Amino acid sequence: MRQYDVVISTPNSASPAQKAVSNPPEDLFDLVLVDEAHHSPAPTWNALCEAFPKARVVLFTATPFRRDGKEIKGKYVYTYPIQKAFEDGIYGEMQYIPVTVASGLDPDKELARQTAYEFAKDKASGYQHIVMVRANTRTQAIKLQEIYGKETTLRLEVVHSGLSNRATERTVAQLRKGELDGVICVNMLGEGFDLPRLKIAALHSPHRSLSVTLQFLGRFARVNGEGLGDAKFLAIQEEINHDMESLFQESSAWGRRIRAIGQRQISKEIQTREFLEEFENNEAIGDEATLDDLSLYSFSLFNHAKVYQVHGEVDLWAKPALQGFTVKKSWVNRKHATAAFIAREESLPKWTSAGVLSTTEYHLFVCHYDEKAGLLFICATCREDVIFKQIAALFVKGHVLGLSLNKINRVLRSFTSLELFNVGMRNRATGTVAESYRQIAGSAAHVAIEKSDGTLYHRGHVFGRGTTPDGVTTIGLSSLSKVWRLEQSKLPQLIGWFTSMAGDIVNPAPFTTGIALDYLDAGVDVEVLPALTVLAADWQNGCYDKPPLLFVPGVTRPMSLIDTDISVNWLPEKPDRYEVTIRLEEGEVNLIYLLSPYPHFEYRDESQTKWEIERAAKRRYDIIEYLNENPLRFHLADGSILEGNQIFPVPADDTPFDAETLMEAIDWQGNNVDPYREFGECTAPLRSIHDWLSERLVNGSSEIVFYDHRPGECADYLTVDLNDDGSPLIRLYHCKGAGGKPSGERDNDLFDVCGQVTKSTRWRNRKVLVKQVNKRTQTGSVFRKGNLKMFAELVASSPQHQFALEVYIVQPGVSVQKLSTKSSNLMATISRGLLAHGCERLRVLCSA
Predict the structure, then answer these.
(1) Ramachandran angles phi, psi of 121, nearest 5°
(2) For this protein, what is any one GO molecular function term (predicted)?
């Protein structure tokens, strides 16, 4: 071939990938021009391009993107805009004619009749147009040939890949001579086919791919012959694929829309390549030789992100290193503040210890920092929380914090016409209750949310679909500061999604979704602590499922974290902090909780003894670290809950506390009770509140009286009675000595016991209650009536999972007659909380 200046060939006849083709000399050509270059990633084409390493290779294509996402290797040097081609007369106008089918009629027959009508109309106008009827299978093509033969006068022939070249060429020759009006094709007559008169397309099986459809439409729109009019496309509107609905919409400017969509696809591809070219290798990582030719274009990630608020500096050039992984290649894009790296993980199946069976898996990690929003987005193919934390620690010098529920829900701001398929609702109650987390699933899950649910639950995770300015898409989010959608994207589109969400997340303006999801509170972010008394603080619900072990210096055995008592003080002279004390019989630790510069716990005095926590991984770490990852829930005097830096307000309800029915006045003096002495020895003949209550309960109708007064208690006294149907009725009694003479004005007399009441609902749960009583009897709590065996017979063996529960406050410092509005409102709020979680109304034993 060296004697020729130009050689024209096809890949199938010249590619060394073909068995019958020998390897050509590497210096045979100086220039290789490739048409239809979107096929160049295919093995046959690629082998031909790489066969001449010294030659320059120029790729030509009208569709510089592929359905399979494979890279068309090369750099853009020239693009010819579609609109310019139209203005230059290379492309003509296009029309879309949707065919509607009345009920009971055959869609294929209706489309055939409409196609024949358009053909006849064009012919009457002097146009020499040809029809293409598109089928998806050979069977469908044969069926359509019969339909067109019966319903129309169009002369059509079937063409498919199973026919011989001679048969296909004969059909094409008949088309050129005017002996046929058109063809019925099964994905034929595509690339390289030049028949300008092909102007009417009947899409009995529309393409489901945008790129293929645009290429198909473009071939009909070309103008390079005389006697030609606008290209026309006919389809049954109801059969258009959901993803293609925006393309196939009737409009007088349909051709303009198609050109715009096509140009957007090309522009998107150009922007993708420009974005990826801006990445640099991170020289801190010694690249693995086998990854040298790895292209970022080949990455397509599931759209998922863990989002952190950053309090500190971000260095994306830091050397990535993850425990259990070996980082093999790393890139950084300075302009777009993005780092990406590949890490290898070797692991053994859980069922063997034989190293020969170890498996190797590669993971991709992408980190993007939106400096304006102060947000770090992490997308990873290994989505474990411990990995996200490690990655954040790699790149951030300072502190990162997961987004509040309020902020992560802001990603819904841009959505309209939301349909939810899965909704989580988190119970406002503390500890383990009947439904600590409720989940609704279905095609319209949000419809099942009732207004009353807002009293018991606030928002958890959400997954659904809606419309954004960019079209219809899915969206998912969780209270763990994660967001996702069911799409896969290359890096530029992924980062674009992050940027779009960042704008919504930092926008504090209120918004609604317009559906029943709005009944569920997503919390309100606060920058200062509310000027309200903290009634109680409690652990996250997960702590009750698997209580962590607590290690206290000087104590030989580990303790259960939930056996502690927590007290909280908010002082007006120090409004920026809560003073928190966590107490055991063996000692206490004193902490402070601050919202600034971010929500966190600190030791009140760094010189004090440090406590440690151990979880399932058998790793011990400081209680401060544990609390900063699992913050306490603070129950405030107005019934609201503060968690992290967000408040979940109590649902509005003005129902007053029914003092006449729910408060019982006790003659403390007549019963020889010292109203100021909660427990312990008293001067004769007086006795403590605990001793008086013990006598009252033991002499009463209760089957069981259990005394549990010490840190980690469920109540001072727990009793078990039997309802008329034989089911257990649990009563809890929380006692407090009077802070002065009986009054209705001393709110502090109520705050402590009301705080204990807010944490009582979890004891309705049989499993939790039985476990508590069994454990406490082993460590000092006693039965004043009955015994553990009787308790087991009445409670542990009950078929019920949830019991009726009544909670009592025993407080001589509160007076029925002198009850203040503030105290009444407080008890009403606490009582409503009990009712919302399936308990009975709050009852009070107090002074007259």
Answers:
(1) -65, -40
(2) ATP binding
How many Cα atoms within 13 Å fall on the side-chain side of residue 310? 25
Concatenated DSSP letters of 166-219: HHHHHHHHHHHHTS-SEEEEES-S-TT---TTEEEEEESS--S-HHHHHHHHHH
Q: What does the alpha-carbon distance between residue 73 and residue 94 come to, in Å, rounded to a whole number?
A: 32
In eight-state DSSP terms, residue 40 is T
Model confidence pLDDT, tens digit, residues 307-327: 999 999 999 999 888 888 999
Q: How far apart are CA 768 and CA 141, in angstroms?
A: 67
Separation of CA 831 from chain center: 35
- Which helix (H) or strand (E) segment holds residue 120: the answer is helix 107-124
Q: Report the C-alpha gap between 192 and 37 in whole angstroms.
A: 12
**Rounded Cα–Cα distance for residues 781 and 430 (Å):** 23
Quick check: 259 pLDDT over 90?
no
Q: Nearest CA to 57 among 43, 70, 75? A: 75
Residues 6+ apart with CB under 8 A from 575: 528, 529, 531
Output the pLDDT for position 245: 47
Rounded-to-integer distance, Cα 843 and Cα 728, Å: 18
Same fold? 84-249, 659-847: no
* Cα angle for residues 408, 413, 416 (degrees, 5° grid): 135
Q: Find the Cα–Cα–Cα–Cα dihedral 266, 270, 276, 278, rounded to 10°.
A: -160
Distance of alpha carbon 189 from alpha carbon 195, whole angstroms: 9
pLDDT tens by residue, 707-764:
999 888 999 999 999 998 889 999 999 999 998 776 545 667 788 899 899 888 889 8
Angstrom distance (rounded) from CA 828 to CA 835? 10
Distance from C-alpha of 91 to C-alpha of 222, rounded to nearest angstrom: 5
From CA 590, how far away is CA 604, in angstroms rounded? 6
CATH number attached to the domain at 84-249: 3.40.50.300
**Cα–Cα distance for residue pair 687/675, rounded to 1 Å:** 9
Taking the C-alpha atoms of 256, 261, 264 and 266 in order, what is their torsion angle to the nearest 10 degrees?
A: -100
Q: What is the DSSP letter of 792?
A: I
Domain regions of the chain by residue span: 1-79, 84-249, 281-402, 407-516, 534-648, 659-847
Which CATH class name applies to 659-847?
alpha beta
pTM, entire model = 0.74
